[in-house]
Amino acid sequence: MVTITSKIVICGDFAVGKTTFVKSFLGGEVLEGYKPTIGVDIGKKVFDIEENKLIFQIWDLSGQQSFQAIRYQFYSRTDGAVLIFDISRRKSYQNILSWTEEMLEQTGLIPVVLVGNKIDLRDQTTDHVTTAEGEELSKLITQQTKIQTPFVEASAIQRYNNLTPFISLGKMILQRHES
Q: Which residues contact 12 (CB under 8 A, 6 or more apart)?
């Protein structure tokens, strides 16, 4: 059994549900309504994968453009990332490649999981991002990073698939650690 401490950044546009997603993973209270993250929020989660202990230091980065300049310092020593877009806001999906580029410039090649959040809103929008589009974007990120990038659809507010991205990321980090 090995213990690995990893810094994980959570990236994406403002109001895509990053903070709610992190809170649901950490087991905290999930509140409806939008409250912007100022700079960064940091949380910690300890869990086991394949008889190994993982300690994730989770950095929820502000998605607001006005924080871009200070965001760069938060990428230092990052071991993995979760890129999140809101399936009901196509623009947040379209911006993921910019987020990927920003992150990779600061971190180098690291494991990434792509999350299409707010699938509970899929029936309430006519121009939502489809599962196929999310999968296509994950393939594109895989080509950019040369690291398999899984795509997960989730609903942070309903706590649906909120663990899956972190388990996938944990397995990828363990794999890198072993090689």
A: 18, 63, 83, 84, 85, 86, 92, 95, 96, 99
